[in-house]
Amino acid sequence: MAKILHILDNLGLGGAQIVVKSILESNSSRHNNILYVLRKTADSITVYSERIYFASSARKFSYPSIRKLKRIIIENEIEIVHCHLFKSVTIGILLKRILKKRISLIIHEHGNILEVDGSSKLTTLSYGMIIRLNKKIISKIISITNLTTKALIEKTKIEKYKIIQLPNFVNLSTFSETKPNEREVQRNIFGFTDSDFVIGFAARLVARKGWEDFIRAAVYLSNDTSYKFLIAGSGEDESKLKKLILSENLIDNVKYIGFFEDMKNFYASLDCFVIPSHWEPMGITELEAQASGIPVVASNVEGLNEIVTDSVDALLFEAQNYEDMAHKIQQLKENPLLKKTLINEGYKNAEKYSLQQNLKILDSIYNNVTINHV
Question: Could you count the other beta carbons within 10 Å of the beta carbon of residue 164?
């Protein structure tokens, strides 16, 4: 049974964090997983595990973190260091160079190879260059989609055999079809009636997630008061979001609830879920919504359109086209048969990305790396 140390930049709500949370909380994983978080943030998800360490420094890079991680690796006889997101990858490479053959290094590519959110183009270029310069000491890179795999090969020149494609996964025991009584209770909590058609959006509030397009679609549909919009998330654009809701007189149509960790109950209140990203490495919310029995409307971009299929298990619209988004939402409201079909096919699609199935693949990756390390 391999002993694995996961290194993660922070526990903010995002795809990488949900993946790590799922791994740490899974009883089926045969491996001994430990998590080290490089910094705390104001909004953090809860990971139910006793094997979590937090950096004492608020800085992203600090000598004490390197020293503490080295001690954790030695004391716990760690065999594999599994790194998630840019800062963690940099720390992992430093540890590998310090400890040499003591550990194997796995990098989990969640999309930083495309762009490091909230950073300059130079930072994104630096990330690719760091991997390129250190590719010889990397055992495996886990890539979540064809999109990220192509970018890795192009930008880092890493050998294709070192890349293993493993998409994000959804915990079907957590996210399951919403029961009518659960829907009624949750809608009442948010102040929605049974006659409302509730459209949800949940993501970090940064430009590329398309939150502004979502608001523009709400404006476009505002003549019909039965359309209600529910937004969850936090981020650098939070104040811009609030100002736009006010300036467009959407107080009665749009409800913003900020950082919201209880996504199961979030989905329970919805009639459809929208992902308006301008680009997306893969995402995970589309699978959570589908597993919850909520039809998905998403932008037709690489990464997303690898996971959901237009007019089969989701409706896709042209990215950054809020009118097209609004029309797809209208289709769902006006065509109950279409909505039912998307719900049924969506659940079948989510089953293909189940946590249990994908943990088996992850286990085989760990076992393979451990055998080769020995």
Answer: 17
User: Going edge to edge, which strands form the sheet with 254-256?
Assistant: 254-256, 227-232, 197-202, 272-275, 296-299, 315-317
Name the residue among 75, 220, 166 with its Cα closest to residue 361: 166
Distance CA 30, CA 42 (A): 32
Report yes or no: 272 and 196 within 8 Å, Cβ to Cβ.
Answer: no
Helix (H/G/I), strand (E/B), else coil: 359: helix
CA distance between the termini of the chain: 13
CA dist 341 → 244, 259, 332, 347 (Å): 34, 31, 10, 10
pTM (2 d.p.): 0.94
Distance CA 24, CA 39 (A): 18
DSSP summary character for residue 297: E
Do the Cβ atoms of 84 and 19 come closer than 8 Å? yes
The tokens for 319 are: 């990215």
6 membership: H or E segment, kind and range: strand 3-8
Return d(Cα 234, Cα 15) in angstroms, integer: 14
Dig out the tokens for 136 from the structure: 């010889």
Q: Measured between alpha carbons, how far is 239 from 202 in angstroms, rounded to an integer?
A: 16
Closest CA to 89 of 176, 158, 191: 158
DSSP H helix total and E strand total for the chain: 13, 13
Query: Per DSSP, what are the bridge partners of residue 230?
Result: 200, 255
Q: How far is CA 108 from the centre of its chain?
A: 13
Give the β-pairing of 254-256 and 272-275.
unpaired
281-316 pLDDT per residue, tens: 999 999 999 999 999 999 999 999 999 999 999 999
Taking only the tens place, the pLDDT of each residue in 153-199 is: 999 999 999 999 999 999 998 998 888 888 999 999 999 999 999 99
